[in-house]
Amino acid sequence: MRIRYRRHRIKPPELDITAFLNLMVILIPFLLITAVFSRITIIDLNLPPSTAGDSAQDNKKFELEVIVRAEAIDVSNRNGVLIKRIFKPGAEHDYKTLSVVLQNIKAEYPDKLDATILSAPDVSYDTLIQVMDKVRVVEIVQAGSVVQAELFPEISIGDAPVEGAQGG
Known about the structure:
The protein is an alpha/beta fold. The protein has four helices and eight strands, in the order H-E-H-E-E-E-H-E-H-E-E-E.
């Protein structure tokens, strides 16, 4: 006796993706709403201007220079005139006094936009960034809200001269 085998055509099962699509329809808006969109801030920095040039013109022109050292912050004119030395009172520099000094300088030179920040090698990155923030803007309370006013937004950055050496 001969056994006949019937060949049944086996159909592949159909994929039911309805549940998956429902999940995606709910999950994607939820993730977009709850996502934290971080803002990347970039500060444009410039190299300090060269010291070569007409010395008579340099003496007339005010060039703000902030020298950050581990023990103090010096605010001076680029030609060597020290405006204010702000000593470090404790573990952190006195950024409030720095801000007040810079506001006074801005009142004298309202059209001035550039400043040079010179940092000693032993100054921490956090200290340098906080000094840069104080040089760029000041927070003023107006009508019960805090407003940022521009001081010297065009910042040049470089290495501080060796303590005791004459800049020039």
